[in-house]
Amino acid sequence: KIELSFEDSRALTRASKRLLSNDYGSETDEKDEDVSDTTRSSIEAFVTTYNNAIDSSKTTNSHDTKRYVKQLKALTNKYASELSDIGITVERSGKLTVNEDLLKTAHNSKVRKIFSPDQEYSKKAYSICGKFNNAVRDDIVSQVNGKGLHINISL
Description:
The chain is mainly alpha-helical. A hairpin with a 5-residue loop joins strand 1 and strand 2. The chain is 66% helix and 4% strand. A two-stranded antiparallel ribbon has the order 1-2. The model has no long low-confidence stretch (mean pLDDT 89).
């Protein structure tokens, strides 16, 4: 259902925002420690919501929604090598899988290269996720308005 796509895209936007707010240490840290449990949990949540959003987006015929999913997959493919370095594999389908053993031993410096707020992947992913969520919401609103119904979507 398109409502599921809306909820999944909203969850993905929240998960990508949470990644932007994690502490990955600084480049000048003398010790490059493994990522914290909180960071690992945020990454795993991002991967789960990413995959859910990719799956549920198939329920919509919205050109805009499909465009943003395509952009998100392309961005993720561009960073496949960096994601692989921390235990995230980009599958042929565009979905992600996590090698939990690699993620547990990933160092902050490698995670920072992808997910810190000043990196292209994290900034663009967050932007695309927001646009994706808005496109799904707009699709729902247009369907409801076309049927003469009213809906209240709280963001």
